[in-house]
Amino acid sequence: MTRTRRCVLLLVLTVAVVLGASLPANAVFSSTAAPAVQPAFSTATVTGPLNVRVDTECTTYTRVIKRVYNTATGAQIGYSDVTTSARSSSNVESDSTVRTDNSPQTGQHTVTQTIKDTTLFATARWKASPTPGITGYTMTAFLGTQAYPMGTAAPTDTSFTGQYDASVVNFRPVLSMVTNTGYGWTAPGTMSNTVTC
Fold it and tell me: Does domain 50-191 have CATH number 2.60.40.10?
């Protein structure tokens, strides 16, 4: 290759590098941003369920177990087990055992165990949220500072029923219902009345 050809080739390469470096950045990379997706609803507020309340009823079950023994031998010779129930306005829980000596002629004694336990029957009721796009409600019971998940309710549900040991009323529980939507927004938990017997 002659010296003249080498000079021409060098000049062409230099011009190509200079022109390439002077191209604007947007000639190579597009800076166009995708349009933001707008939610398909017009409100900016999610409303929780209305008139949330918990109706309750407490029932105390009393179980009386009687065992009759031959005092001389200690052998059990009689047994009975009876359970009764009654409406209660408070949580009643106890377990006591009493021995009763029968008349000396029988040579027997009776041991009576009395067990009392109260069950809370609770039904939460509410009116559905008027916000469009509701997918359901998340229910949580707050017992003092502790939170206990209670499950979820469908968007068309207006009540939820369960039964629990009535000892929970000692913690003055309340039910929280958080409204969920298909577009990811939620309403703060709507609180019920305090649950009592």
Answer: yes
